Amino acid sequence: MPAGVQKYPRTKMVLPLRVWVDRYADDSAAQLAHTIDISVAGGRLGGLRTQLHPGQTVLLQRGQQRAPFRVVWNRELAPNENQAGVEALEAGKNLWGVELPQQVVASRTGWRTYAASATVSAGPVPVAARPAPRAEQVPWTAKLGQLAHRERVRWGLILGLLFLSGILSLSVYRAIMSDAGKPEITAPVPVPPTAAELARMTPKPVELPLVAEVTTWSATPAPRIRIAMAPTERMVYPISPDGDISGSVRLKILIAVTGRIKQIQVLSGPTSLVRAAEQAIQVWRYKPLRSKGQAAEAEANVVVNFRGADAVSVEFPSKSR
Questions:
Q1: Using an 8 Å Cβ cutoff, are 236 and 203 in contact?
Q2: Which fold has domain 11-126+138-148?
Q3: Of 158, 264, 265, 268, which has the most beta carbons under 10 Å away?
Q4: How confident is the model at residue 252 (pLDDT cuts 50, 70, 90)?
Q5: Are 269 and 250 spatial neighbours (Cβ–Cβ below 8 Å)?
Q6: What is the mean pLDDT of residues 195-222?
Q7: For the chain, which residues make up each domain, given as ranges?
Q8: Which of 16-20, 27-31, 98-102, 133-137 has the lowest mean pLDDT?
Q9: Do 223 and 292 meet the contact criterion of CB atoms below 8 Å apart?
Q10: Count of H-run helices and E-run strands, the chain
Q11: What percent of the chain has pLDDT over 90?
C-alpha cells in the first residue's frame, strides 16, 4: 500500500499504543504513540519519536494484544514527531480491540462491502446502492492530538515571555551600571554663620541702668569660691558698638548664691567696649554653686576680645592678667 493509495476507508479514532521499532527488543525500548485513523487492514500512527522507513516491520501493542505491522510510508512533521502509515501482517487479527463499522472497498468493477471481520461479500455493490454516509462521532480519545498541539503552543508562549523578560532585565541592569559610573551630586556644605549672624540670632540684653543690677562688694556670711568657667544657665555674647574698633576688656565678676551676676568690676579696656561688655554680662546666669554643702558666691575673671564687626570672643582665665 504505497503512500496516497487507500484500499480500505479509515475510521478516525485515537487509541494509545506502544511501538517497538525493533520487534525483538525488550519492553524498555518501547515508545508511546497513538492512532489517528484505523481500518481493518492497518491505520495511520501519530506521535512517533523515531523516523520509520517504508518496508520496515514494527511491533504494535494495544492493551494485552501485540501484532506486527509493515511501514508503508513515513512523514516527519517536526523534530522527534513523525506520522506513519502501517498495514497488518497477520490477516484477520483485530489488534484495535474496537468494533469497526462495515467497510466499503473501492475496486475497478465497483464497490465491495466488507464486514469488520475482513471477509468479502459475494458480488459487487453498485455505487448507487451505497448507504448514505453518517456523521461519525469522534470519541474523547480523538482530542489527545489537539491537546498535544495546544501544549506546544502554550509552551511556546511561555518561552517567548521569558525571553522578553530577560531582555527587559538586561536593559535595566545596563541602565543601572551606566548611572553608577556618573559622578554623584553632592550637597553643598553649609557655611558656618558669621559673628554678625550669630549676634542677630542671640537675644539682645535689655539696656538698664547699672545700679539696677550691679551692686557694691558686701561682706556676707556666705563663703566665696573662685571659678574659671562660662555661664551654665544663660550666656549672651557682647555686640561690638563699632565695627572699626577692636580691643580687649578685662573684668572681674561676682556671682551671687542665686547664680545671678551680683557685681562687675572693670580692670581695663576702652570705655565704649566696656559698656558693651557690661550690658551682655549683667544678664548672664550661673547654676547656683555650693561649697562644703553650703550655698556660696563665686568670683571669675572675664576677658572679652572685640576683633571688629565679625568676631567677638570671651575667655575665663583662672588668674587676672
A1: yes
A2: Thrombin, subunit H (2.40.10)
A3: 264
A4: very high
A5: yes
A6: 56
A7: 11-126+138-148, 195-315
A8: 133-137
A9: yes
A10: 4, 15
A11: 35
